[in-house]
TrEMBL record:
This is UDP-N-acetylenolpyruvoylglucosamine reductase. Keywords: Cell cycle, Cell division, Cell shape, Cell wall biogenesis/degradation, Cytoplasm, FAD, Flavoprotein, NADP, Oxidoreductase, Peptidoglycan synthesis. The keyword Cell division applies. GO terms for molecular function: FAD binding; UDP-N-acetylmuramate dehydrogenase activity. Pathway: Cell wall biogenesis; peptidoglycan biosynthesis. It comes from Oligosphaera ethanolica. The gene is murB. The lineage of its organism: Bacteria, Pseudomonadati, Lentisphaerota, Oligosphaeria, Oligosphaerales. It is an enzyme of class 1 (oxidoreductase). GO terms for cellular component: cytosol.
Length: 310
C-alpha cells in the first residue's frame, strides 16, 4: 500500500462517519518504545465503547483487518507502508483509562491506563500488593494480554476478569479468569478479544507505605534499565533457572549491532536503540535472528521472543 493508498484508506474511514480526530496515519517508529519501523500505519484511537464499536464496524465495512496496539512497549513496527491491518489503539485520555472501585477489594481499571501510574493511583485508594510490577512500561491491556511480570509477581495474579469487545463482530464480552489459567508470560485472553478494562482483586494497603514501595521499585528499575530506546526483554527465559541474558552473553553476542540496534553491553537480553532515532524493523529482526542462531549453535537451545512484530 503506497502513501496515496493509505490516504485513500483514511478517506474511506472518514466516509463511514467515524470522528475524524480518531483517525490518523503515523510512522511506526513513533508508535513503539524501541522506535523500530520506518513504514507508516493507519491508526484509529477510539475514546469510548461506542467509538470502538464504530471503528471495528468501519474496518469490517471496508474489508480491512484490525490489530491492537497498547503503549507499544513490547512491539516492533514495520518498514512497510503496507501493514496487514488497521491498528486500533484505545485513547489514553478518555473512558478507557478510568479506575472505578467495585467494592470488596475489586477495582475496574481501563485498558489504556499505564500499568505503573495505575498501580500508584490504586495505592492512593488504599489498594495494592503488586508494587513489584510498577516499573514495567506498557498498558493495562498489554499487561493482561501477555501477563506482564517482574520481581516474582505476575499481573494475572491480580486479574479476576477481562472485559472487552470481540473484534470479529463488535459484541461486548466479559471473560472471568481463574488463577490457574495464567502462567509465565501467558494469558487466557483469546486473540479476538480487545481488552477494554480488567477487574483486579487487590489487598488493602497503607497508601503511604505502598507508594514508598512503588517509588523504590521505579528507582531500582531505572538503575538496571540499559540506556537508549528499548522494549524490555527480547526473549523469554527458557526456564526459571536458565536466563536468556546469561545464555546470550556466554554465546558472545553482547555488543552485536545492526543499523540502529545493538545487543546491550549492560544486559544481553535487551536490544537497545542508542540513538533513539527511527530504525529499520528489518535490521532489528536480522539482529534477533543472528542472536537466536548463535545461541542455538553454542547452547543447542531455541530462544523465543516475547515481542510482537507487526
Ligand atoms: N516485565 C517487563 O519489564 C516489561 C514488560 N512489558 C510488558 O509488555 C506488555 C506490553 O504492553 P503494551 O506496551 O501496552 O503493549 P503493546 O502496545 O506493546 O502491544 C503488544 C501486544 O499486546 C496486546 N495488547 C495490547 N493492548 C491490548 C488490548 N487492549 N487488548 C488486547 N490485547 C492487547 C496485543 O497482542 P496481540 O497482537 O496478540 O493482539 C499487542 O500486539 C505489557 O504487559 C508490559 O507490561 C513490556 C516491557 C518490559
Ligand atoms: C524486562 C522484562 O522482564 C524481566 C523482569 O523485569 C526481570 C525482573 O524481575 O526479570 C526477568 O529478567 P531477567 O531474567 O533477565 O532478570 P535479570 O535479573 O536481569 O537476569 C537474570 C540472570 O541473568 C544474568 N545475566 C543477565 C544479563 C546478562 O547480560 N548476563 C547475565 O549473566 C544475571 O546476572 C542474572 O543472574 C524478566 N525478563 C524475562 C524474559 O522474564 C520483560 O519481560 O520485558
Amino acid at each position: 500500500m503506497t502513501a496515496a493508498t493509505q490516504t485513500a484508506l483514511l478517506d474511506s474511514l472518514a466516509a463511514t462517519g467515524l470522528p475524524v480526530d480518531t483517525i490518523a496515519r503515523r510512522r511506526w517508529a513513533d508508535c513503539c518504545s524501541l522506535k523500530a519501523g520506518l513504514g507508516h500505519v493507519v491508526i484509529l484511537t477510539p475514546r469510548n465503547a461506542t467509538e470502538l464499536t464504530q471503528s471495528l464496524s468501519a474496518c469490517r465495512s471496508i474489508g480491512v483487518a484490525t490489530a491492537i496496539l497498547g503503549a507499544g512497549s513490547n512491539a516492533v513496527g514495520s518498514d512497510d507502508d503496507d501493514p496487514a491491518a488497521i491498528i486500533i489503539r484505545l485513547a489514553k485520555n478518555g473512558h478507557f483509562a478510568d479506575i472505578a472501585p467495585l467494592g470488596d477489594g475489586r477495582y475496574r481499571v481501563g485498558a489504556a491506563a499505564l500499568l505503573g501510574p495505575a498501580l500508584a493511583a490504586l495505592a492512593r485508594l488504599g489498594a495494592g500488593g503488586f508494587a513489584g510490577l510498577s516499573g514495567i512500561p506498557g498498558g493495562i491491556g498489554g499487561a493482561a494480554a501477555m501477563n506482564a511480570g517482574a520481581n516474582g509477581q505476575d499481573f494475572g495474579q491480580a486479574v479476576v476478569a477481562m472485559e472487552g469487545i470481540d473484534r470479529r463482530d463488535g459484541t461486548p464480552q466479559v471473560l472471568p479468569c481463574r488463577p490457574d489459567e495464567w502462567s509465565y508470560r501467558h494469558s487466557p485472553r483469546p486473540d479476538w478479544l480487545i481488552v477494554t478494562s480488567v477487574t483486579l482483586s487487590l489487598q488493602p494497603v497503607n497508601p503511604a507505605a505502598e507508594i514508598a514501595l512503588i517509588h523504590a521499585e521505579r528507582q531500582r528499575r531505572q538503575r538496571v534499565t540499559p540506556p537508549g530506546a528499548s522494549a524490555g526483554s527480547v526473549f523469554l527465559n527458557p526456564t526459571p533457572e536458565l536466563s536468556a541474558g546469561k545464555l546470550i552473553e556466554s554465546a558472545g553476542c553482547k555488543g552485536w549491532s545492526r543499523g540502529a540496534f545493538a545487543v546491550s553491553e549492560q544486559h544481553a537480553n535487551w536490544i537497545v536503540n542508542a540513538s533513539r532515532q527511527p530504525g529499520s524493523a528489518q535490521d532489528c529482526q536480522t539482529l534477533i535472528d543472528a542472536v537466536k542462531k548463535k545461541v542455538q549453535a553454542v547452547h543447542d537451545l531455541d530462544l523465543h521472543t516475547e515481542w510482537r512484530f507487526f
